[in-house]
Specification:
Number of domains: 2
Structural class: mainly alpha
Mean pLDDT: 83
CATH superfamily of the largest domain: Intergrase catalytic core
Distance between the termini: 128 Å
Order of helices and strands: HHHHHHHHHHHEEEHHHHHH
CATH architecture of the largest domain: Orthogonal Bundle
Helix content: 40-55%
Number of strands: 3
Largest sheet: 3 strands, antiparallel
Pfam families: Phage_int_SAM_1, Phage_integrase
GO biological process, one term: DNA recombination
Shape: globular
CATH topology of the largest domain: hpI Integrase, Chain A
Domain Core-binding (CB): 52-139
Protein name: Integrase
Strand order of the largest sheet: 1-2-3
Low-confidence stretches: 1-17, 28-47
Region (Disordered): 1-22, 30-49
Length: 353
């Protein structure tokens, strides 16, 4: 029997042992364990040889936003806006298979939304921001070198006066609700709740019945339900309280879900259906000149609040805005309001010549 020398043993696969590791363990280690670590994460990554398509890019972006804790409403908007973009590409570039667009394609999309779909600049900008954010993310991740939105500007949005519901129109709306029926009671409560709290319709549909505090006349908007992912408390008045007392008695007996607003079968009310219900009531009340929608109720609440209190900072918290930019638009009142405030100022008297 021959005995192997050190040199022969190394030739058979034994490695140089500078770490005082027993040879029996050293023989079981793979070569990569003892190699000097690479100096950077980039060097360790191997480039992927895959064709980049719009669908693959969106799926990676969507997963990243989901992992970052984006709200379900935000993720839903991502899907919706990307589907509109895909639809445009399918119509204009039917022979191409999910290609990654360039700057000219983005400009053609903007032109199509303006001239063919007749969309408002504000609506177009919302869609553009979603798609632009995806390409900006792809650049930051090193997936692409240049965004097709480079040097493509958002559209200028003319400042429009907010539509608000007058007290007379409000009375007409509530007169159309038959409080002896479930749907009439629920719809009256829904309108009153929106007018009193200013919550977004999506947030409103996700409020649970147990999150309503009758004693303090308040309701909680959970962080996961809020558009900005920040929890807040909203408040309501005497009319909403009276409707809630009657409605919650029905909810306790017939409700099959925790959500405050339910359909006639005891299931959660869908926000799109709730929007249609409010619009239908507006048509029955023959309201003209004002679009009867949940967002108009939100504008009405904000306008009335700022006129009554003059405090935009507390309004921001009640509305759940992350900045003062949107709230400041309510501060910029129309000409009639400015004239009214000026007359109050002048009524204090001024020096005469």
């Amino acid at each position: 029997m021959s005995v192997s020398t050190g040199k022969t043993a190394q030739k058979r696969g034994q490695r140089k042992n500078n770490l005082d590791i027993p040879q029996r363990l050293l023989d079981r280690l793979t070569p990569s364990v003892l190699e000097t670590p690479r100096t950077s994460h980039q060097e360790a990554e191997k480039p992927r040889n895959e064709t980049l398509t719009l669908d693959k890019l969106f799926n990676r972006y969507y997963t990243a936003r989901q992992a970052a804790g984006a709200a379900e409403r935000t993720l839903e908007d991502y899907r919706k806006h990307m589907n509109w973009f895909r639809r445009f590409l399918a119509n204009e570039y039917s022979g191409l298979d999910n290609f990654v667009p360039n700057r000219d394609v983005i400009r053609l999309w903007i032109s199509s939304m303006l001239t063919v779909q007749k969309l408002k600049p504000s609506t177009i900008n919302i869609r553009l921001r979603t798609v632009k954010a995806m390409f900006n993310w792809a650049m930051s991740e090193g997936i692409i070198k240049e965004s097709p939105f480079e040097n493509v500007e958002l559209l200028k949005v003319p400042e429009e006066d907010f539509q608000v519901i007058s007290k007379a129109q409000e009375r007409k709306l509530f007169n159309c609700c038959e409080l002896t029926s479930f749907t009439g009671l629920r719809d009256a409560l829904l309108m009153s709740f929106l007018l009193d709290t200013g919550v977004r319709i999506g947030e409103c549909m996700r409020i649970f019945a147990e999150e309503v505090d009758l004693q303090n006349r308040s309701a909680s908007v959970r962080a996961e339900s809020a558009k900005t992912r920040k929890a807040r408390t909203v408040y309501f008045g005497a009319r909403t309280l009276e409707l809630l007392v009657i409605y919650l008695a029905w909810h306790e007996m017939n409700g099959q879900a925790r959500n405050l607003f339910l359909n006639e079968y005891g299931q959660p009310l869908d926000k799109n259906w709730a929007t249609r219900c409010i619009s239908f009531i507006g048509k029955r009340a023959r309201i003209l000149g004002v679009r009867i929608s949940p967002h108009t109720f939100r504008h009405t609440f904000a306008t009335r609040y700022i006129k009554a209190t003059g405090d935009p900072f507390s309004l921001r918290r009640l509305l759940g805005h992350s900045s003062m930019e949107m709230v400041n638009r309510y501060v910029n009142q129309d000409v009639a309001d400015v004239r009214e405030q000026y007359e109050k100022f002048m009524s204090g008297g001024t020096e005469r010549w």
